[in-house]
Specification:
Radius of gyration: 21 Å
CATH architecture of the largest domain: 3-Layer(aba) Sandwich
Largest sheet: 3 strands, parallel
Strand order of the largest sheet: 1-2-3
Order of helices and strands: EHEHHEHHHHHEHEHHHHH
Bound molecules: tryptophan
Distance between the termini: 19 Å
Number of domains: 2
Mean pLDDT: 94
CATH superfamily of the largest domain: HUPs
Low-confidence stretches: none
Strand content: 5-15%
Structural class: mainly alpha
C-alpha cells in the first residue's frame, strides 16, 4: 500500500522547508526545526528540502547533492518523525515545478518585483540575477498551496512571500472557484533568533566567512565548547538578557534557553554574580548535550544510504499523493485536458 498522510478531520496542515544552500546550524534548529518537531503532535506536516530554490544561486553539483541528503538526515536526527510526517526533497515531487509555472501566469511582474528579498539578493549577486530568483516566491507559493497548508512556519524574512502566496490563492479562488486553502504565516516563538557568535548584532549565518561565528549541528563536542568559549561578550560582567545593549551575552542566554528549556529569568538568576567564565562553560556543556545526540544519529543515518533512500521514497510518495490531487483540480479549472495516466 502507498504510504499516505492519514488526514484526520480536525487536524490542520503545515508545510515548511529550508533551502539546501548550506549546512544546518543551531540557528535553523532554534528558529525552525525544534518547532516543527513539536508541531507534529497536533498537525499533519510536510517538511521539505528546497533544492529547487537553492539553484537560484549557482551551486557546485556534488555539494548540492551531499547537502540535500545531509539536510534530510538532519531533519530526521532532530526528531522529524518520518512515519508521521512527510519528509521529502522538493525536486522529487514534480508537481512543485508544474504548479509554479501555472502560478507564474497569475503573478504580476510588478508584484514579483516588489519582493524585498529579490531586491536584496539581486544586489548581493549582481552577476547572476536570473529569472528563477525573480520567481522564487512563486515557487514557494506552489510548495505551500499544493498541500492546502493552513499554516506555514517561517522566519520574519519570509513573511512577504507568504503574503504573496495568500494573494495568489485568493486570486485563483476568486477567478475560478475555491481551490486553495489561504495559508497563514506561523512566526516562530520568542527566543528563537540566534545571532553570530562573533558579531552578535548580525544573524548567525552558515555562509559567514568566520568559522567561529556559527555552530553547525554536525560540529564535534570540543569544537562546540571552543566556539562558545571564544564567543564575543560585551563590556560588563553580569549575565543579563538585554539584546539592545548586551547582544553577545543575550545570544548566549538564548542558546542556553534553547538547550535547557529554562526560562530567561531563571537563567539570569542561576548565574547572578558568577561572571562569564562559568556561564560560558555551562552554555558550552548544554550545547554539547543538545547537539551530540543529534550529530550521532545524523552520522549513523548518513552511513546508511539505504535507510535514507527508503525514507525519501516514502516521503515523496506521501507528498505526491496530495500534490497530484491539488494539481489535477487546478488543471481542470484552467482548462488543461486531463492527462492520461
Ligand atoms: N524560502 C524559504 C527560506 O529560505 C525556504 C522555503 C522554500 C519555504 N519553500 C518554502 C519555507 C515553503 C516555507 C514554505 O527559508
Amino acid at each position: 500500500m502507498q504510504p499516505e498522510i492519514t488526514k484526520t478531520e480536525n487536524k490542520k496542515i503545515i508545510l515548511s522547508g529550508i533551502q539546501a544552500s548550506g549546512d544546518l546550524t543551531i540557528g535553523h534548529y532554534a528558529g525552525a526545526i525544534r518547532n516543527w518537531v513539536e508541531l507534529q503532535q497536533d498537525y499533519d506536516c510536510y517538511f521539505m528540502v528546497a533544492d529547487m530554490h537553492a539553484i537560484t544561486s549557482r551551486q557546485i553539483p556534488a555539494d548540492l547533492r551531499r547537502r540535500s541528503l545531509d539536510v534530510v538526515a538532519m531533519y530526521a536526527a532532530c526528531g522529524i518523525n518520518t512515519e508521521k510526517s512527510a519528509l521529502f526533497i522538493q525536486s522529487h515531487v514534480t508537481e512543485h515545478a508544474q504548479l509554479a509555472w501555472i502560478l507564474n501566469c497569475f503573478t504580476g511582474f510588478g508584484e514579483a518585483q516588489r519582493m524585498t528579498q529579490f531586491k536584496d539578493k539581486s544586489q548581493q549577486h549582481s552577476d547572476n540575477i536570473n529569472v528563477g530568483l525573480f520567481s522564487y516566491p512563486v515557487l514557494m507559493a506552489a510548495d505551500i498551496l499544493l498541500y492546502q497548508a493552513d499554516l506555514v512556519p517561517v522566519g520574519d524574512d519570509q513573511k512577504q512571500h507568504i503574503e504573496l502566496t495568500r494573494n495568489l490563492a485568493e486570486r485563483f479562488n476568486h477567478l475560478y472557484s475555491p481551490t486553495f486553502t489561504v495559508p497563514e504565516p506561523f512566526i516562530a516563538k520568542e527566543g528563537a533568533r540566534i545571532m553570530s557568535l562573533q558579531e552578535p548584532w548580525k544573524k548567525m549565518s552558515k555562509s559567514d566567512p568566520n568559522a567561529n561565528s556559527c555552530i553547525f549541528l554536525h560540529d564535534e563536542d570540543a569544537l562546540i565548547m571552543n566556539k562558545i568559549k571564544r564567543a564575543v561578550t560585551d563590556s560588563g560582567t553580569d549575565i543579563v538578557f538585554d539584546i539592545e545593549n548586551r547582544p553577545g551575552v543575550s545570544n548566549l542566554v538564548t542558546l542556553y534557553h534553547v538547550a535547557t528549556g529554562k526560562s530567561i529569568k531563571d537563567i539570569e538568576a542561576e548565574f547572578a554574580g558568577l561572571g562569564y567564565e562559568p556561564f560560558k562553560e555551562a552554555v558550552g556543556k548544554a550545547m554539547v548535550e543538545l547537539i551530540s545526540p543529534i550529530r550521532n544519529t545524523f552520522n549513523d543515518l548518513r552511513s546508511h544510504p539505504d535507510e535514507i533512500s527508503a525514507l525519501l521514497k516514502s516521503g515523496a510518495q506521501k507528498a505526491s499523493k496530495q500534490a497530484f490531487k491539488t494539481l489535477r483540480k487546478v488543471y481542470k479549472k484552467i482548462g488543461f485536458v486531463e492527462p492520461i495516466r
